[in-house]
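Hi all, long-time lurker, first post. I run a small reading group and we've been trying to get comfortable going from sequence to structure in the token notation. Rather than ask abstract questions, I figured I'd post a concrete chain and ask someone more experienced to write out its structure so we can walk through it together at our next meeting. Sequence below, copied exactly:
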Amino acid sequence: MAPPSDIDRLIALGLNRYGAGDLDGALLMWEEALAIDPDNAKAASYVDYVRHNYELLGAEPQIAPADEAPFGIEEEPEYHIEIIEGELEHRDSQPMFPDDAVDAGWFDDEATHDVSGVVNANAANGPPPIELELEAEPPPAP
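-- Answer (accepted) --
Happy to help. Here is the structure in token form:
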């Protein structure tokens, strides 16, 4: 019986060939390892798997036509939003931060003004901040 390192080397070479798409070369390496140690479970399982799935593993991948794409992959529909004058009701309430400096910061790449005083002043006068915790459902099993 050969040392375990020779068997491991043959199994690794078989895996490299398998990864490169050379199924016959992989089978040859694993069968060589089995010739040295017929009871090697790893080499035997690789040989059995490849022999059992040889046609499937060696076939060219098939691409489904666009109308039969899996998982509901379809072209995104184009959305149009139309705003018609008079649809929205007039509101008497004011924005939470009426300071123009806060609004201007949204469009400045490098905002140089400090709005913390505005935020802190509004927080002191208004209700306590609301903390939201969001949860998501795991995706359904295929």
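A couple of things your group might point at:
The two ends are 46 Å apart (CA to CA).
Helices lie at 4-19, 23-36, 41-52, 54-58, 100-105, 116-125.
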